[in-house]
Write a structure and sequence with these properties.
about 350 residues; alpha/beta; 3-stranded mixed sheet; 3-stranded parallel sheet; 11 strands; about 15% strand; elongated
Length: about 350
């Protein structure tokens, strides 16, 4: 959910983050909860206190979208479930973003990205031949969760513009990942995708869609799928395509991989970058995070982090929610709310 809110903030939404009043005691968990938190105002509220719950409801009553990521039933126990806003904010889009969803035998279990993609077949298809490897937490948490939450929330706002009514949206990361896997499942249904990792067209098995180590220990990424791109790739390596075995026959992939690996190993990454830059070979260097920030293409797109923590005062947030200044001061003094 932090990424979903960050993306909405980067698109111009005014985002308020409400967090627990005190740290959870789980240092790693608290650190992970702060990842990607920018472009928003953050306030802390004692959600176990009745007055704290009232503060949250006052804020949500004036919101277009609420994104909550509690286990099922928690928001209701805290007095901020969707039913509390049916009358006070009928246009609210209430997004419930979790890993397992609001129902099913796993709905009350804890989990992380690696668990969600493991249960959907995605993790089994990614990694080395001898074991699956998690692709960071990009697939379940960010793509299957945050991005699907944004799409569903914005679609609900479009629907609200016609009907005037909000919606309760159940976004489960496992559902999002299952949708993302649709093309791969279609390939499997067609019999052109095997369930053996690193043996397929797009999982690193094909020698023209994988990475190769260069003489300096760097890597180049090769995505030469189409015939014209493949021809450009082979020519860039200084090889004659007519001398190579048929690339569409998987039984030739091992020999092709050895040939390509030997060629890349002769020069460093910078050399191969110069060779393939500006061509249609679909070959690019594999950059580290720090290197990526300095690459001319990324600089041209201005892909730097766009925001920072908002510095609005706690008082301004609560006054916008309709609270009087003396009531705000009393809540602060009582330790119910605090600035972050």
């Amino acid at each position: 959910s932090p990424l979903a809110c960050t993306m909405l903030a980067d698109m111009g939404c005014d985002v308020i983050r409400i967090e627990r009043l005190s740290p959870s005691g789980n240092a790693l968990g608290d650190q992970l909860g702060d990842i990607g938190v920018r472009s928003r105002t953050t306030i802390a509220v004692d959600m176990k206190d009745a007055e704290g719950q009232s503060v949250v409801r006052s804020i949500v009553d004036r919101a277009d979208i609420l994104i909550e990521a509690f286990r099922p039933g928690t928001a209701e126990r805290l007095g901020v479930g969707p039913e509390r806003f049916v009358e006070s904010n009928p246009g609210l889009v209430y997004v419930r973003l979790t890993g397992w969803g609001q129902d099913g035998p796993y709905s009350m279990m804890a989990g992380h990205d690696i668990n969600y993609i493991g249960l959907t077949g995605a993790l089994e298809a990614i990694g080395e031949r001898d074991r699956p490897l998690p692709p960071l937490n990009l697939v379940g948490d960010y793509a299957g969760g945050s991005m699907f939450a944004i799409v569903r929330a914005l679609a609900a706002l479009v629907e609200r513009s016609r009907t005037g009514k909000g919606a309760v949206v159940d976004v489960a990361m496992i559902d999002g990942v299952d949708s993302l896997m649709t093309p791969i499942k279609d390939l499997a249904d067609l019999g052109v995708w095997t369930e053996r990792r690193s043996s397929n067209l797009l999982d690193g098995g094909a020698p023209f869609y994988c990475t190769y180590r260069t003489a300096d220990g760097g890597f180049m990424a090769v995505g030469a799928l189409e015939p014209a791109f493949y021809s450009s790739f082979v020519a860039g390596l200084g090889l004659a395509e007519e001398d190579l075995p048929n690339r569409f026959d998987p039984s030739n992939w091992s020999d092709l991989e050895i040939t390509f690996a030997d060629a890349f190993a002769e020069e460093d990454r910078e050399h191969w970058t110069r060779v393939f830059d500006g061509t249609d070979a679909c070959v690019t260097p594999v950059l580290s995070l720090s290197e990526a920030q300095d690459h001319p293409q990324n600089r041209a797109r201005d892909n730097s982090l766009a925001g920072a923590h908002r510095v609005e005062a706690l008082e301004a947030v609560l006054e916008d929610a309709g609270m009087a200044r003396e009531d705000i001061d009393a809540l602060v003094a009582a330790g119910v709310v605090a600035s972050r």
